[in-house]
Structures are given as C-alpha cells and as structure tokens.
C-alpha cells in the first residue's frame, strides 16, 4: 500500500511539471529585446601641444659658465683634426695662475691668494711648567728627597749624666738644591733639642722633584738619642 502511494505521488508530480513546461513552450508573446553591443559613440580627438619651458635664471647661467670653465681639462668628445705639440702648460688655467678665494664672515673682505702662497706659521712653543719657589709639603706624585750627607748629633754631657734619651721630631725646609734652609722643633726634649737642630742643619739631600722640576719642600725628620751601656 505504501509503495503504491509513492508511485502515485511520483506520477502526479511528473504530470504537473510536464504541464508547466508545455505551457511555457506553447505560450505566444513578445520576445525580449536583446542588449545592444558596446560601441564608442561621439569619439573626440584631443590635440596635444608643447609646453614652453621657463627661461634659465642667472644662477643657472653662472653655474653653466663655471661648469664650462671647469670642464676645460675634461676629455674631448670630438676627435681633433690635428695633434699639436705639448707645451707643458696644458693644466694651467686661462691666466696661467691658480686663484683660490676665501670668503670670511659677515663684514669682512674677500681674501684672494694667487699661487701656492706662504706656508702657515708654526705653532708657538709650549710654555714651560712654572717652578715652585715657595716650599711645598710632600705629597703623592712627587719624588721625595733622599739623604746624601749625614751628621750624627753630639750627645750633650748633661743629658748623658741625667740619662735622658729619646726622639726629637723636627720640621725642616729643604731648598731646590737639597740644602736645609731652616728647622724647627715639633716634639721637644729640652736637653736634646739644640743638639738635634745642629745635626739636621748639616744634612744634605737630593732635590725633591715635581713634574721633573726640582722644588723646595717641607718635610718631617727625626733624631734619635740612645745611651749605650759601657
């Protein structure tokens, strides 16, 4: 039953579709107007004209003239008719001199140098290092003085009798030749001070140096007094 119903449905649909197609085929009426082919109508020709170039400015004319003057040594583009002998002055300018112009700042004149010109003056020699004349204290970077001549102090008899010994500290000023200009007591032992001063004034040193120059310095020195047991 179900199978027969399906066949019946197919037949009915086929008849409906066939009738529609037949009606379309047998229908009589005006046919549609076909589209017109693409055509170029009312074509107009355009006339092309030349555009006049502006006149060259004065700067361009000056540049062209300078370019032509500079190009005098360039290789020729046209073969010459004859070969002339060399004169040795082919590289000279039109006047046989090389002219260099140097223009300075505003308000200054134009300096013109013809030919090679004089060579520049050599730079001035460097100023020598100022040599210190006032005694300075020893510091890093200096070459300290070294004792070259020693003089032992004379032990005072009164200090020996009192059995006094110890270290006297002095501040000495040594000049640029290594001589002791002056000395003063920093740490005193009253019975030994004068003997220490007399000894230090006889000492001689090598010169202290700063940047290779001999300079006077202030330095601290010591004198020891020791009793020897007999």
Structure in words:
This protein has helices at residues 2-26, 58-70, 157-161, 193-200, and strands at residues 99-103, 110-114, 136-137, 147-149, 166-174, 180-187, 204-205, 208-210, 213-215, 217-225. It is elongated, with a radius of gyration of 60 Å. Strand 1 (99-103) and strand 2 form a beta hairpin. It has 230 residues and is an alpha+beta fold. The strands form four sheets. It has a four-stranded mixed beta sheet with strand order 3-10-5-6. Strands 1-2 form a two-stranded antiparallel ribbon. It is 22% helix and 21% strand. It is built from four helices and ten strands; from the N terminus they run H-H-E-E-E-E-H-E-E-H-E-E-E-E. It starts with a helix and ends in a 5-residue tail after the last strand.
Strand order of the largest sheet: 3-10-5-6
Radius of gyration: 60 Å
Distance between the termini: 160 Å
Helix content: 10-25%
Mean pLDDT: 77
Percentage of residues in DSSP E strands:
15-25%
- The secondary-structure class comes to alpha+beta
Task: Please sum up the structure shown.
The protein is α+β, with helices and mostly antiparallel strands. 22% of the residues lie in helices and 21% in strands.
List the helices and strands and how they pair.
Blueprint: H1 2-26, H2 58-70, E1 99-103, E2 110-114, E3 136-137, E4 147-149, H3 157-161, E5 166-174, E6 180-187, H4 193-200, E7 204-205, E8 208-210, E9 213-215, E10 217-225
Parallel strand pairs: 3-10
Antiparallel strand pairs: 1-2, 4-7, 5-6, 5-10, 8-9
């Amino acid at each position: 039953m179900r199978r027969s119903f399906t066949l019946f449905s197919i037949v009915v649909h086929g008849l409906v579709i066939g009738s529609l197609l037949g009606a379309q085929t047998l229908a009589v009426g005006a046919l549609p107007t076909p589209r017109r082919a693409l055509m170029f109508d009312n074509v107009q020709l355009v006339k092309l004209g030349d555009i006049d170039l502006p006149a060259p400015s004065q700067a361009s004319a000056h540049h062209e003239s300078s370019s032509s003057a500079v190009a005098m040594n360039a290789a020729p583009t046209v073969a010459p008719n004859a070969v002339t002998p060399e004169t040795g002055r082919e590289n000279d300018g039109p006047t046989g001199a090389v002219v260099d112009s140097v223009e300075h700042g505003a308000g200054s004149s134009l300096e013109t140098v013809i030919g090679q010109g004089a060579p520049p003056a050599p730079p001035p020699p460097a100023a020598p290092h100022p040599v210190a004349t006032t005694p300075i204290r020893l510091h890093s970077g200096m070459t300290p003085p070294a004792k070259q001549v020693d003089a032992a102090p004379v032990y005072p008899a009164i200090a020996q009798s009192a059995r006094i010994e110890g270290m006297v500290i002095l501040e000495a000023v040594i000049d640029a030749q290594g001589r002791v200009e002056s000395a003063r007591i920093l740490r005193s032992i009253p019975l030994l001070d004068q003997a220490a001063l007399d000894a230090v004034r006889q000492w001689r040193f090598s010169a202290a140096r700063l940047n290779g120059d001999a300079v006077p310095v202030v330095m601290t020195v010591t004198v020891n007094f020791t009793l020897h047991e007999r």
